[in-house]
Amino acid sequence: MYKKRFTGILVRNLILMAIPQIIILVALIFTVMNTRNHKNVSTYEMDDLTQQEAFYIGDMRNVIFTPEKLSYAGFDSVADDEKMGSYYFAYKDGKVYFFILNNESAKKADRGEYSKMKFRIVRDKPTTEHIMNEYIESLGLQGASMDGTGSIYIMDQLKYPEMWIIALKIMHYLLATALLALLLYLLIACRLPSITRQARSLKKYGKVKAVITSLDRELRKKLLYKNGNIYVTESYLIVEYISKVDVVLLDDVRYISKNIIEGKKKRRFQLTLSNVEKMYFEMFIDDEQTIDDVIYYIRGEE
């Protein structure tokens, strides 16, 4: 337990207020990590086009693949009258495989430049059959069967969830950074409680560090009354909560009043301390005797 009692209150409140934040951050980090490891977000290396179906069935649909040679299929992918990409195909081991490349990759493919690309494997039998039928008609082979000649899967560069994967990665790093920053702040604030938010309100009484030292001394050597979260010393009234600590310098108090507040189920008592020039403080409590005791020790008389 802290020998410096007021310092101990600040540190305890700091830790109690931080615990929910730490729990939330840790939970979010694990959620993002699990999401990043999910098959819908993970990206896998694919070495051969014949692996297409196995990857799709295995729910490993985001892949990195390096095409060897692609030919323009004569169709474009258009959205809102804007060309988003183009259909290309590759021929391997007697089978046609289809690709959708974005405009930049399409230009490179036209120049014969190929590098690792990221795709989403999409099952789209109607589209692939339509393209194959167009080729049959252009070759004058109407009625010819080309079942099994064309793959029913498309390597779609436009549907690869690039932004979502990047967003999850950034979110992961930001959350981890926020957690480390919070832990670092806790470490520093436990050593220097004068920097905490709850201590800032003490500036009105002088330098925060000096006021904390004074409060520690008052609680250790000049404590007149304590009941629960309420302390009265020779110089201060201190009321501690988890979210804040109210400190009133008794030299500032000029007026004291006790009021009864009638509620629907029970009555409460209000203690008001005020000074027209400097301060106003009010406290609510269910126990009238505690209010009377606080007033007694503040006034020094009944």
Q: What features would you describe in this structure?
A:
The two termini are 34 Å apart. The chain contains seven helices and 14 strands. The model is unreliable at 139-145 (pLDDT under 50). A hairpin with a 3-residue loop joins strand 13 and strand 14 (279-285). With 302 residues, it is of the alpha+beta class. The strands form three sheets. It has a seven-stranded mixed beta sheet with strand order 1-2-6-7-5-4-3. Strands 8-9-10-11 form a four-stranded antiparallel beta sheet.
Summary tags:
single chain, 302 residues, alpha+beta, seven-stranded mixed sheet, four-stranded antiparallel sheet, 7 helices, 30% strand, rod-shaped
The outline comes out as rod-shaped
Structural class: alpha+beta
Q: Measure the end-to-end span.
A: 34 Å
Give helix and strand order, one letter per element, not per position: HEHEEEEHEHEHHEEEEEEEH
Low-confidence stretches: 139-145
pLDDT averaged residue by residue: 88
Helix content: 25-40%
**Range of strand content:** 25-35%
Count of strand segments:
14
Kindly provide the radius of gyration, computed on alpha-carbon positions and rounded to a whole number of angstroms.
Answer: 36 Å
Number of helices: 7
Largest sheet, in brief, is: 7 strands, mixed
Strand order of the largest sheet: 1-2-6-7-5-4-3
